[in-house]
């Protein structure tokens, strides 16, 4: 199996993502994780461009990591000197070679670019340092000139030549051909660095490997300038599973690495992103959930555990009874048929409103239905209304069914929850005299339409204490549900209704 080197640029090109900046401590944490993950090279930064970079770099170099620690420099002696002063043993140096960039970004002639290439590579090599050379904007460079620059870099001693698709304009077939054509000119190992402006960075990187590149530049979660770089996790899994290539990556750490980088960069991963997105191994429709529970490969390309993940049978409007049951059982929750029916109804109710029901939501609903909702209920809520506002006194009215008889009560309070609890107590006081001793509210998922879980403790005059839960999108309804559940439980515990 051919080995492909993974060159990670999360902390260099990835740090060029708008709004992303890593502290030296964060860089050390990311580098340590990348090293465990098994990348071959870590591009740690661009010391002459970023202040404070030298400290981060020194910490990384002293951390005893196995990976090659590399830094970026322009093909300029002053930049290279800054890198050398940090005692690096690997430098990635670049210069623009496309007509548009030579003229408008560098204001240099092709001859000057050629001369800088040779001088920089030689200067780096004369210091005994590994040198990777990049003709920037290679994919928009006239092939004749690109060939000339790459040959000159090789003769000057470059250890690797990296081909950047700087503005992401390549198509996979063109990338494969370009690398093949360059391979016919230089013997030096070739690498590809693809940007994602047309969403083709991963495809182009893989095509580069098919063409003969032995190294790929990647960034965790596809971070990078503009639309980003080829994503590490997608390139690696494509290489392993589709192209049957070998890398040093321990795929089981891909998800935790993605999580770490997302947390430290502040860039959220889109839910439907391949490999590391929250939905990458989530199944919603009944057909899919039934399929994967009996044979995972029916609707999965590979087992989620391979990349450090778990399958998620997402409960939503399309979710079947089977999938919800399997999802609950995976979390150690075993509902009876009666409970399951109620759980499925509630999940479908939320799904019909277009709400995604997460694992946490499902567990909360199940806990409420199973733990607190008795199959035989003494008190039942039949109607409820609450008002609140700035110039109105929060008021709630409830209608409860007790032993076949309907009772109505209304109360005011400091807010609608307080008013609702008081209205319930007004009715049940004659039966149970239950007091609320603890109240906790948790929003399970983000957003104002999140499922809220209310956890309460109630106590009666006889000293019986029970805890109860309610889980609804509406906080007031979740509170009412928790209170009714609490009273039911306490009455069941006493085994009788006081007359
Ligand atoms: O995209 C690019 O061309 C780069 C170079 C510095 C290699 O990031
Ligand atoms: Zn780049």
Computed over alpha carbons, the radius of gyration is: 31 Å
Proportion in β-strands: 15-25%
Structural class: alpha/beta
Bound molecules: 3-methyl-2-oxobutanoic acid, zinc ion
What is the CA–CA distance across the termini? 81 Å
Major beta sheet, specifics?
8 strands, parallel, barrel
Overall strand count: 16
> In what order do the strands lie side by side in the largest sheet?
1-2-3-4-5-6-7-8
The shape, in one word, is elongated
Question: What would you say this structure looks like, in words?
Answer:
By secondary structure, the protein is an alpha/beta fold. Helix content is 40%, strand content 20%. The protein is built from 16 helices and 16 strands. It has an eight-stranded parallel beta barrel, surrounded by nine helices. Strands 11-12-13 form a three-stranded antiparallel β-sheet. It has a three-stranded antiparallel β-sheet with strand order 14-15-16. Helix 1 packs parallel to helix 2 and helix 7 runs parallel beside helix 8. The protein is elongated, with a radius of gyration of 31 Å. The model has no long low-confidence stretch (mean pLDDT 90). The site of zinc ion (ZN) has 6 residues, from loops.
Could you list some keywords that capture this structure?
499 residues, eight-stranded parallel beta barrel, binds zinc ion, alpha/beta, 20% strand, binds 3-methyl-2-oxobutanoic acid
């Amino acid at each position: 199996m051919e080995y492909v080197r993974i060159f990670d640029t999360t902390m260099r090109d990835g740090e060029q993502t708008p709004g992303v900046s890593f502290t030296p401590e964060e860089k050390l944490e990311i580098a340590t994780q990348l090293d465990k993950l098994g990348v071959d090279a870590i591009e740690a930064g661009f010391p002459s461009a970023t202040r404070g970079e030298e400290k981060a770099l020194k910490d990384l170099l002293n951390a005893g990591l196995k990976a090659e620690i590399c830094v970026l420099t322009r093909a300029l002696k002053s930049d290279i000197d800054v890198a050398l002063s940090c005692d690096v043993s690997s430098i990635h140096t670049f210069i623009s070679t496309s007509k548009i960039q030579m003229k408008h970004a560098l204001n240099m002639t092709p001859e000057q670019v050629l001369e800088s290439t040779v001088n920089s590579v030689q200067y780096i090599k004369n210091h005994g340092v590994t040198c990777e050379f990049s003709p920037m904007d290679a994919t928009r460079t006239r092939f004749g000139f690109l060939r000339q620059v790459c040959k000159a870099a090789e003769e000057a001693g470059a250890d690797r030549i990296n081909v950047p698709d700087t503005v992401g304009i390549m198509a996979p077939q063109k990338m494969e051909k370009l690398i093949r054509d360059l391979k016919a000119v230089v013997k030096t190992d070739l690498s590809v660095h693809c940007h994602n402006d047309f969403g083709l960075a991963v495809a182009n990187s893989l095509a580069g490997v098919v063409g003969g590149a032995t190294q790929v530049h990647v960034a965790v979660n596809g971070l990078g300038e503009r639309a980003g770089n080829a994503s590490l996790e997608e390139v690696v899994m494509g290489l392993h599973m589709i192209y049957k290539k070998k890398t040093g990556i321990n795929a089981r750490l891909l998800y935790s690495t993605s999580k770490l980088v997302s947390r430290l960069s502040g860039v959220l991963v889109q839910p439907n992103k391949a490999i590391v997105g929250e939905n990458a191994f989530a199944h919603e429709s009944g057909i899919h959930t039934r399929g994967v529970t009996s044979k995972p490969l029916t609707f999965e390309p590979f087992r989620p555990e391979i990349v450090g993940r778990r399958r998620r049978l997402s409960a939503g409007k399309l979710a079947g009874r089977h999938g919800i049951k399997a999802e609950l059982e995976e979390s150690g929750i075993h509902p009876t048929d009666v409970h399951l029916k109620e759980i499925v109804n509630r999940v479908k109710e939320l799904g019909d409103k277009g709400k995604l029901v997460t694992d946490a939501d499902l567990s909360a609903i199940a806990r409420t239905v199973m733990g607190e909702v008795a199959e035989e209920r003494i008190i039942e809520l039949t109607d409820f209304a609450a008002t609140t506002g700035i110039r109105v006194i929060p008021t709630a009215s409830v209608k409860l069914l007790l032993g076949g008889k309907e009772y109505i009560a209304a109360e005011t309070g400091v807010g609608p929850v307080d008013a609702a609890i008081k209205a319930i107590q007004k009715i049940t006081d004659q039966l149970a005299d239950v007091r609320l001793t603890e109240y906790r509210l948790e929003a399970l998922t983000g957003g104002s339409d999140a499922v809220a879980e209310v956890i309460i403790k109630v106590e009666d005059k006889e000293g019986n204490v029970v805890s109860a839960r309610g889980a609804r999108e509406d906080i007031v309804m979740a509170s009412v549900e928790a209170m009714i559940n609490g009273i039911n439980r306490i009455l069941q515990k006493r085994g009788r209704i006081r007359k």
